[in-house]
Design brief:
The protein has about 600 residues and is an alpha+beta fold. A hairpin with a 4-residue loop joins β22 and β23 (about 490-500). The relative contact order is 0.09.
Length: about 600
């Protein structure tokens, strides 16, 4: 007796549906993508009981005639592609022809559609994959799809669904993704007949982000110049400023040719681009759009179409890294302008913005400034001028005309208080000094290379073939890092020297960490990337500490050097160096505004 037999058509459809329809949010995703492909200008989504009881998606797209409506419910029937050549350059969100038949096989399904110039539309009812009714209808032009009782005929799948609130949040997240990816389309979402949000069509992504996430978040984002990624790869959207982050990737949104995707390539590029601008364990906020030739990206990796494969991942990665770095650095000018001192009062035309209270002018300097790694000025061999204990006097200095900041005091011997046109600015002197020293020491090591020290006993280690090939191609990079490695046979190497600040009790494991670290870095990254963590720890020990009193010239120099840094927004560990307290917030605290 034969042990192998063919599955029934209905059972095969239910098995295949599990790849496309994982939960109610998957149904919403597939239906909304079909509406977008149908050139809809308005999409309305209604759910009940977290989508488990009912999902209804209604659009005003081009609609279908009866023949197409019946054919679209057959597996692998689609209007998006016709040949294998089309599969190599997909320009639509849907293309597999699996969504509608998969949904119909695991729910009580209804499809109502009508073309704009048709007298009547088509109404089709299917229950668990079995067609029950096909009739004419008089619905408005467009398409409406209902899916009731998801997984009613698959209790094993139904019991794995989460609570109604969890499923609702997943659906809302999918709708947010589609709304962000297509701001020119109006979206509305109703839960249990109550309106959750209604988004009008907008002309720009900025308006859509503001409508969904509010003006406060929008003010903390930097816009990406559309031409940042080069000619073949266009990058646009918004990214969070340095230090603006979340503990999860929930707001790390990436779109490739309008499709929301999850890509390890882009994820690692974002992390690389934000290097030292985020705290460890934090993820940036991004609304990143990647546009490239459809032939250069394969979206047919998984039935859910969440993952993509790039033909040239290194090029995409380098473009994203360069874009993030350029955007963060380009925002430095606007960031610096926030700390420009307000115009002097007309009643005191001779007042200098550098005048300070006596208590600040007479502070002493502690031994912290005579440590091994001093401030940037002491790198140049310059000592700050000494201040006398004379009473404050109104004086004009050459620096006052070009000064960007007005120091008004020091709080708790840690936070430098400054005034700008928007209100009060607090500077963490320790974090600020860390950033200044970090960039100075890293620049020195990049110019001169890392020092190298011969090992008393060279150590032999073996590597897998791919890692061995990588070592052979990157011997020059390792040499610049101060790591002396020589070939010692097939897939065998000898470690002869290391930088004094690195130790390797297990050379094979150490080299593996080096390889993994450099592979995750972009081609334009510093070859001293592995030493940066140690540099950050070193400058943390030698930077001015909390409660270290500073004289006014040192405070002035510290702020000026910070504003000249490549990434002045945060310390090497990702903590902010400055925070702004607006005048409006102060007035609210004092009851001047409600």
């Amino acid at each position: 007796m034969s042990r192998i037999h063919l599955l029934s058509e209905i059972l095969a459809s239910q098995v295949a549906a599990g790849e496309v329809i994982e939960r109610p949010a998957s149904v919403v995703k597939e239906l909304v993508e079909n509406s977008i492909d149908a050139r809809a200008q308005k999409i309305e989504t209604l759910i009940r009981r977290g989508g488990i009881s009912l999902i209804r998606v209604n659009d005003d797209g081009i609609g279908m005639d009866r023949d197409d409506a019946l054919l679209c419910l057959e597996r692998h029937a689609t209007s998006k592609i016709r040949s294998s050549a089309d599969l190599a350059a997909i320009g639509t969100l849907g293309f597999r022809g699996e969504a509608l038949p998969s949904i119909a096989s695991v729910s009580r399904f209804r499809l109502t559609t009508r073309e704009h110039d048709a007298v009547a539309g088509t109404d089709i009812i299917i229950s668990g994959g079995r067609m029950e009714t096909v009739r004419d209808c008089g619905e408005a032009p467009g398409t409406q799809v209902e899916a009731r009782s998801i997984f009613f005929n698959l209790p094993a799948r139904r019991k794995f669904l989460r609570s109604e609130n969890t499923e609702t949040r997943n659906i809302e997240h999918q709708l947010h993704l589609q709304a962000i990816g297509h701001p020119s389309i109006a979206f509305s979402f109703l839960r249990d007949d109550r309106l959750v949000f209604q988004l009008p069509a907008t002309k720009t992504l900025r308006e859509r982000v503001r409508d969904l996430y509010g003006s406060e978040l929008l003010s903390r984002l930097l816009e990406i110049a559309p031409s940042s990624g080069g000619s073949k790869i266009k990058l646009s959207g918004f990214i969070g400023r340095a230090g603006v982050s979340r503990q999860t990737r929930s707001q790390q949104l990436v779109f490739v040719n309008g499709r929301a995707i999850e890509s390890p390539v882009v994820g690692s590029a974002l992390k690389e681009g934000y290097h030292t601008a985020l705290m460890k364990g934090q993820y940036p906020i991004t609304f990143l759009f990647v546009e490239l030739d459809p032939a250069e990206v394969d979206v047919n990796v998984h039935p859910a179409k969440r993952e993509v494969r790039f033909r040239d991942p290194s090029t995409v990665r380098e473009a994203v890294v360069a874009c993030i770095r350029h955007t963060l650095e380009s925002g430095r000018g606007a960031w610096q302008n926030q700390f420009r001192a307000p115009d002097p009062s007309p009643s005191a035309p001779n007042a200098s913005p550098l005048d300070l209270p006596r208590i600040l002018r007479t502070e002493s300097v502690t031994a912290a400034h005579h440590s091994v790694i001093p401030s940037r000025e002491r790198f140049r061999g310059k000592e700050p001028p000494k201040l006398s204990n004379e009473a404050p006097s109104k004086r004009a200095t050459p620096q006052a005309e070009s000064q960007q900041f007005q120091i008004i005091g020091v709080l708790n011997k840690l936070y430098v208080l400054m005034e700008n046109k928007d209100g009060l600015v607090l500077v963490d002197q320790h974090a600020a000094h860390e950033r200044v020293l970090f960039e100075e020491l890293r620049r020195r090591m990049e110019e001169r290379g890392a020092p190298s020290q011969k090992l008393l006993l060279p150590q032999i280690f073996e590597l897998p073939p791919r890692d061995a090939e990588w070592i052979e191609r990157n011997l020059a990079t390792l040499q610049k890092m101060g790591i002396g490695v020589e070939e010692f046979g097939r897939s065998t190497f000898r470690l002869e020297s290391l930088p004094p600040f690195l130790a390797a009790s297990d050379p094979a494991r150490f080299i593996q960490e080096v390889i993994d670290g450099l592979k995750s870095a972009s081609n334009s990254s510093s070859p001293l990337r592995l030493a940066e963590d140690l540099i950050a720890k070193t400058v943390c020990r030698h930077a001015v500490k909390a409660h270290d009193p500073l004289r006014f010239p040192e405070l002035e120099r510290l702020i000026r050097d910070l504003l000249e840094c490549d990434l002045p927004y945060c310390c090497p560990h990702g903590r902010p160096t400055m925070i702004q307290i607006s005048l409006a917030e102060l007035e609210k605290k004092f009851g001047r505004k409600v």
